[in-house]
Automatic annotation (TrEMBL):
Keywords: ATP-binding, Nucleotide-binding, Transport. Pfam families: ABC_tran. CDD domains: ABC_HisP_GlnQ (cd03262). This is ABC transporter. InterPro entries: AAA+_ATPase, ABC_ATPase_HisP-typ, ABC_transporter-like_ATP-bd, ABC_transporter-like_CS, MetN_ABC_transporter-like, P-loop_NTPase. PROSITE patterns: ABC_TRANSPORTER_1 (PS00211), ABC_TRANSPORTER_2 (PS50893). GO terms for molecular function: ABC-type amino acid transporter activity; ATP binding; ATP hydrolysis activity. Residues 25-259 form the ABC transporter domain.
Length: 263
């Protein structure tokens, strides 16, 4: 394993407590509409470098739309988003930079079915980053080792289980050396026996100091790995706090209602 595949947070930052770190993501009063539907309402959020944010909330509350705005997959009509010092704007060069530095893992793994696992991982680093093939191949194999499936390198996605495919999707995102990883319900499409293997990989990633924003219904993961939980309802962040604050002492009635339905 190379140093850069294991360390997201440099030694300097890891010595600084979360509260004193600079934010790597800043959302300032963002608003978004789909036609008449006001889907994000004055959303404010600061994420520190190395912080793990878990996003909870009922279906249709705007969680996916929200995390898709963070890498420009969805645009916003009001407010601003700053990622690692770069403001999300229409400037194509800046958007490219943000997309390279923001890895995303979806519920559906979205691997290219006609390419081997190794090629799936190598594609973007070679063609977007333009890193040399030999180096990228070495990195791909190291990442497969890291997500626990080095023996699958030359197989095709259809030959892997859902849990293995999702681990490939994580490796593929990491191959771009992102500064931030976004996860949108990464285990929701998996059979129960495969959920743990994916959450374990995410847990390991969190330990390296990767900044992560994770939409999930996995309460144990949120409780154990999340530095902070945010709860969405009807396009608003209605409550935010540490897992202990949110699970053991929720302030908002809607938080209590949501927790009573899922726990
Ligand atoms: P969640 O991920 O919390 O389930 P979403 O962000 O997917 O919620 O959706 C929030 C709301 O926006 C829902 O009412 C959904 O139907 C609507 N929505 C999502 N995507 C689109 C779209 N592309 N066009 C119109 N409405 C959308
Ligand atoms: Mg969603």
């Amino acid at each position: 394993q190379t140093e850069e595949t294991t360390t997201a947070l440099d030694a300097f930052d890891s010595d600084i407590p979360l509260a004193e770190r600079e934010p790597i993501i800043t959302c300032d009063s963002i608003n978004k509409w789909f036609g008449d539907l006001h889907v994000l309402k004055d959303v404010n959020l600061e994420v520190k470098r190395g912080e793990v944010i878990c996003v909870l909330g009922p279906s249709g509350s705007g969680k996916s739309t929200f995390i898709r705005t963070l890498n420009g997959l969805e645009d916003i009509q009001q407010g601003s988003i700053t990622i690692d010092g770069t403001s999300l704007s229409d400037d194509i060069k800046e958007m490219d930079k943000i997309r390279r530095e923001t890895g995303m893992v979806f519920q559906q793994f979205n691997l290219f079915p006609h390419m081997t696992i190794k090629k799936n991982i190598m594609l973007s680093p070679m063609w977007v980053r333009k890193w040399p093939k030999a180096e990228v191949e070495k990195k791909a194999l190291a990442l497969l080792e890291r997500v626990g499936i080095p023996e699958q390198a030359n197989k095709y996605p259809g030959q892997l289980s859902g849990g293995q495919q999702q681990r490939v999707a994580i490796a593929r995102a990491l191959a771009m050396e992102p500064k931030i990883m976004l996860f949108d319900e990464p285990t929701s499409a998996l059979d129960p026996e495969m959920i743990k293997e994916v959450l374990d990989v995410m847990k390991e990633l969190a330990k390296t100091g990767m900044t992560m924003v994770v939409v999930t219904h996995e309460m144990n993961f949120a409780q154990e790995v999340g530095d902070r939980i945010i709860l969405f309802d009807q396009g608003e962040i209605i409550e935010t706090g540490t897992p202990t604050e949110l699970f053991e002492n929720p302030k908002h009635e809607r938080t209590k209602l949501f927790l009573s339905q899922i726990l």
